[in-house]
Amino acid sequence: MKINQRKLNKQYSEQGYFVIRNYFNSDEIAALRKVVLTFHELWKIDNAVFYKEEAFNSSLITGSQYLSSDDRIKLFNFISSPKMMVLIDTVIPNKPAFMNTQLFFNPVNVKLKDFWHRDCQYDHDIEDQKIAIQETQVVHLRVPLFDELGMELVPGTHKRWDNNEEFTVRQETQGKLSCDNLSTGKKIPLAAGDLLVFSADMIHRGLYGLDRLALDVLVFDPKGDFVDYVDDDCLPNGEMLTALDEPRLFHNTLELKAQRAC
């Protein structure tokens, strides 16, 4: 599939997201699904109560706790594959760095509802959120492993602040709930093989239902101060780096961590 990087960069810059349909073939998804399900089943055992009562996602998928070295290498190779890197370079052209992985699934607890948020709201107060959406760049690359309802996004909010409706819902003020519908929301249904790229700091929510199981790869612009968010165990070690087809994304993170240590 030929990628028009200029067109995708323009859409991301203006809207905060783009989606490519049927980007991965069935063999690629089957191989990725096998590794991710190995992690997921073991994680659910270790986090049984949390999974049953509160969970809708997990993280640190590339870590050593649940995956063998061989499976980790497979996952690292997928994350840094040419298909992924061409899109990562499209939105972060200057030395993009790997941050983390997350796995999103349907909550067991049916009382949990899909909710609107910006990722930056969990680290910043309101005024700093306004700064973050103008100055920082964290990107999700979402790979659904099964057909799902997908995401609902508010286009353009990676660069603009909430309007009154969005703010009262996201912040749950004036009697509103974060699961209430927004008139500005745009639903993006996803199927296995699709790829959705979106800004972490735009207003968004995952949509629960169907066989939701989606792997998110998070990458960041090195100009942002995000390296402290990276778990060392989730990076490839020296031996793994030599086994990867294209380790550039991880080398960039390791370089930033070495600079921070100096």
Structure description:
It is built from nine helices and nine strands. It has 262 residues and is α+β, with helices and mostly antiparallel strands. α1 packs across α5. The model has no long low-confidence stretch (mean pLDDT 96). A six-stranded antiparallel beta sheet has the order 1-7-4-9-3-2. A three-stranded antiparallel beta sheet has the order 6-5-8, with no helix packed on it. It has a single domain, classed as q2cbj1_9rhob like domain (Jelly Rolls).
CATH topology annotation: Jelly Rolls
Give the overall form: globular
Tally of discrete structural domains: 1
Distance between the termini: 42 Å
| Beta-strand content | 15-25%
Mean pLDDT: 96
- Low-confidence parts: none
CATH top level is: Mainly Beta
Number of strands: 9
Computed over alpha carbons, the radius of gyration is: 18 Å
What's the story with the biggest beta sheet? 6 strands, antiparallel
CATH superfamily: q2cbj1_9rhob like domain
